[in-house]
Amino acid sequence: MLREVEAPSNEAGTSITPPTNASPSFPLAAGFAASSISVSSAVFMTNWVDVIKIRQQVAGPEGKNLFSTGVSVVRNEGVLALYRGVTPAVLRGMLYGGLRIGLYSPFKQALSSEAGEDPGLGLKIVAGMGSGAVAAGICNPTDLVKTRMQVAGAIGRSSWGVTQEVIREEGVIGLWKGTTPSMVRAALLTAAQCATYDEVKLLFTRQLGWEDGVGTHLAVSGVAGLVTTTVTAPVDMIKTNMFVNPVYNGPWDCVKDIYRRMGVRGLFKGWSANWARQGPMTTLVFVVNETVGNRAHAGKVYRALAAVLSHDSTLQDELIRELGFVIKEVRVSPDHAKAFILWDSYTGQSKETTRALQKTTPRIRAGVAKFLKARNVPRLEFRLDKISEDDAELERIFSWIEEERNKEES
User: Fold this and answer.
1) Please, what sign has the CA dihedral across residues 298, 382, 288, 117?
2) C-alpha span between 82 and 84 (Å, rounded)
3) I need a surface site. Which of 100, 249, 310, 377 has the fewest CB within 10 A?
4) Least confident of 18-32, 76-90, 165-179
5) Residues with Cβ < 8 Å from 21, sequence gap 6 or more?
6) Measuring CA to CA, which residue among 43, 42, 40, 66 is closest to residue 55?
7) Rounded to an integer, what distance in angstroms lies between the CA atom of residue 403 and that of residue 121?
8) CB atoms < 10 A from the CB of 88, how many?
9) Which of these, 306, 292, 262, lies nearest to 394 by C-alpha position?
10) What CA–CA distance (Å, rounded) separates 259 from 278?
């Protein structure tokens, strides 16, 4: 039988109570940081493919294949030409990537009717299109400058020099040239990338029984990269040509010109280079994002597990004994150790003790995960080190707590 456990008191005699905001969430700042790190890292590592892709797209019908274009760039301009435009590309990746992917989860959660509920493919696509379009609209100047630096004949041009040239010849508004196809591309990119990743991951983990680990993340992101490349190829071709050719009056004018010169296949010019970039880029973005995001999410999950433990005195006492190294190593009182282990709370601790507890936290959480798994605690069907951004498991934990409380009252 579960029963409430009296909260320990601190040195001043004040009762130490568990946090009241233990409901699960993925902080916006953490999501932005994780996305910025993953996207900017991926952009830096794949910039050389982006240069080749852009050269193919602006070359017209006489453009060569991926390998031949790359060899031509290196032969005529040197190896460093493959990393032209990398500075604005990385800066754009930090802001654009942080917004594009970082806003996807909050948008998705806002569209869900209930917390923890899967919103379905349709709403995931809407969330992806919204976050992608917002990010592209804000970051269009950095994308335009990057693209103009990467075309042939841009040797020796700095990002600031290109920016000044655009403003001088086209005005400040010129930095937002091609915004429409850029926003459409980003909307399609994020919708295809994030929604595909979400749905395929659910298929692999829930239907096929794959473990939610790095291997699954690699496989799922590979599929997402293929879908994303195909969906965005035509809009990417239009966006690139509008960025480097001021003669076009708008997206439709650009489409007609590409079709006249190269036919329908012209809209998919640079697909192979795009896939060579989007494949590893999507993989890197989601694997890094999962890793960084899971660390940020782990604290909330831990408190949810603690909420379960705090209602079972027998299980609680066993855990305190098993994790007794905290009391011994940190030299904290048993009551304060209990408060920390159960509620992740530092209330009433000295600064030295708090720092010691913080250093010990990873070992404590690993011990809790091992403890729960060994005793098969009801409804806790996942491990702490395999936490996903999906809050469905947490909702089941809170539902179980409520059910047990209702049993006690009846």
Assistant:
1) negative
2) 6
3) 249
4) 18-32
5) none
6) 66
7) 31
8) 24
9) 306
10) 24
Q: Sign of the CA dihedral 345, 346, 349, 353?
A: positive
**Spatial CB neighbours of 106, under 8 Å, sequence gap ≥ 6:** 28, 31
Q: Which of 100, 106, 114, 99 is nearest to 27 (CA)?
A: 106
Which domains are assigned to the chain? 28-295 (1.50.40.10), 299-409 (no CATH)
Residue 9, beta-bridge partner list = 15
CA nearest 226: which of 202, 200, 204?
A: 200
CA pair distance 4, 401, nearest whole angstrom: 11
Shortest CA distance to 23 belongs to which of 116, 110, 109, 118? 116
Q: Long-range contacts: 328-335, Cβ < 8 Å, 24+?
A: 329/356, 329/360, 330/356, 330/357, 330/360, 331/356, 332/356, 332/357, 335/8, 335/9, 335/16
**Partners of residue 15 on adjacent β-strands:** 9
Secondary structure class of 181 (helix, strand, coil): helix
3-state secondary structure of 16: coil
* Residue partners of 303: CB distance under 8 A and separation at least 6: 18, 19, 22, 343, 344
Give pLDDT tens digits for 223-249.
Answer: 888 898 888 888 888 888 888 777 788
Instruction: Please name which of 202, 16, 13, 65 lies closest in space to residue 121, comparing C-alpha atoms.
Output: 202
- Tell me the pLDDT tens digit for each residue of 117-176: 667 888 889 999 999 999 999 989 988 888 888 775 555 567 888 889 889 988 999 899
* 95 secondary structure, DSSP code: I
Helix and strand counts by DSSP (H, E) for the chain: 16, 0
Burial 392-403 (b: 16+ CB within 10 A, else e): ebbbebbebbee
Look at residue 15 and give its three-state secondary structure: strand
Give Cα 350 distance to the centre of its chain.
36
